[in-house]
Fold this sequence. Notes:
Elements: H1 3-7, H2 26-35, E1 40-44, E2 48-49, E3 54-55, H3 60-72, E4 76-81, H4 86-92, E5 98-101, H5 107-121, E6 125-129, H6 156-160, E7 165-169, H7 181-184, E8 201-204, H8 208-253
Parallel strand pairs: 1-4, 1-6, 4-5, 6-7, 7-8
Antiparallel strand pairs: 2-3
Amino acid sequence: xxxxxxxxxxxxxxxxxxxxxxxxxxxxxxxxxxxxxxxxxxxxxxxxxxxxxxxxxxxxxxxxxxxxxxxxxxxxxxxxxxxxxxxxxxxxxxxxxxxxxxxxxxxxxxxxxxxxxxxxxxxxxxxxxxxxxxxxxxxxxxxxxxxxxxxxxxxxxxxxxxxxxxxxxxxxxxxxxxxxxxxxxxxxxxxxxxxxxxxxxxxxxxxxxxxxxxxxxxxxxxxxxxxxxxxxxxxxxxxxxxxxxxxxxxxxxx
Length: 254
């Protein structure tokens, strides 16, 4: 059983029907894109729940897992959300990470803000996990098709102005699902108006948080590999130094 099998297990929405349309190793591809581009990672999350007036719990935990792992590899991590998600992210992030409040504004202001963030921070990669994305008419809709546009910042513009992007979703209306917008409409249990915002690599999961775990795990494995290499390098240096000292001593005693 692959990691892709695991995160698509217990699928209650039908997202697994889209698996034939993505690479078999989509988790590894997403992780490799991120790890091959060290620097600053933007992680975008926060999906507004209309009846609760809050963001849902799916998304932020996965974002934090990815961010914490990337920080161990030396990345600068910035979580991007809107006013409904800032308190959640501020309360769960590490001390080193930052939270950026993306304003809920019109298209022109939102696009300008996205471009200014990219210019200022120069992110090496941008990741979305459980973040609602534009429909074909630039609206935001939940799984029931209800309009949540007035409660959702237009963070899609970050992905439209960057070349290295990852999207993680479970319903068809999240940023990144634009890669499969046509295919989403063929699955009756998914949204009728899918997100059209595309990404470089798309991760499908039964629950978006589960889709964040393989990326975090791959990053942690990279951390451990680096630690082992550093340990081997230090041991090699000590051994070489000891051999050199022994050789010097032998020469002196001849």
